[in-house]
Amino acid sequence: MSKTALTQKLGFLGGGRMAEALINGVLSAKWYRPDQIHVADPDRSRLDHLKARYGVQVSAANHEVVALSEVVMLAVKPQVIVDALTGIRDVMTNHLVISVAAGVTIDRIRDLCGPAARIIRAMPNTPAMVGEGMTALAIGPNLEEEAVACAEGILRSVGRVVRIQEQLMDAVTGLSGSGPAYVFLMIEAMTDGGVKMGLPRETASLLAAQTVLGAARMVLETEQHPARLKDQVTSPGGTTMAGLHRLEQGGVRAVLIDAIETATKRSKELGG
User: Fold this and answer.
1) What's the pLDDT tens digit per position in 217-264?
2) Residue pLDDT, tens place only, 92-107
3) How far is CA 122 from CA 55, 56, 154, 158, 231, in A?
4) What are the structural domains, with CATH classification, of the chain?
5) Is 150 within 8 Å of 5 (Cβ atoms)?
6) Could you read off the pLDDT of 164-218 as tens digits, one per residue?
């Protein structure tokens, strides 16, 4: 992160879990101090929690946080984005706005914030809460590289970051944005399978979760195709082949593809 970013104040419109993950990330990385971070949220209990835990500055007024910040994280649900941005145009100058609102386009955010705002659209996911998030960034027009690097630095504090074209953002939402829920469902089902076969639930849950974690690290660290890694643990006539055959019979591959397609379409609907 650049020295310029270190001296800027960071504002959050929305103080939910994703905002908290990012606050924790940038503070842990020492990219911002608590006094440089301002948070607005209508839920007073959330503001009290964030102030007590992280020492950040809090407010119930979005326009106040924008006025005090140079970088604004738009961390609200897409359904309430209009309400969240009402009344801030007068205090929105040359702000860098990083939006994590699913399905809401850069053009739509600019319409709400005003033409002076510099917009980056981001889609992180919930593993950001444990520093293992995956975020895709779509860059608005006329943004200098320093501003993009600032956004990347903030989001790298909670995981990995890639840049994409905005027209692909709904697909990112369907894959990595919603993806943790698909994996949680898989872990739950694997755990239930272990319990059915006689394992204690706590043991089965650990076996399932660590297996998913380890398999994901193998894909990332070896840079081998998942099919190749799958073949390496599939012996002729063995248990793994028998299990894979049943998964293919059940249509797991097609169902996952369909789930991502359905979630992508829903993201487009939310964006209007």
Assistant:
1) 999 999 999 999 999 999 999 999 999 999 999 999 999 999 999 999
2) 888 999 999 888 899 9
3) 26, 23, 11, 13, 35
4) 3-170 (3.40.50.720), 177-270 (1.10.3730.10)
5) yes
6) 999 999 999 999 999 999 999 999 999 999 999 999 999 999 999 999 999 999 9
Q: Which amino acid is at 155?
A: L
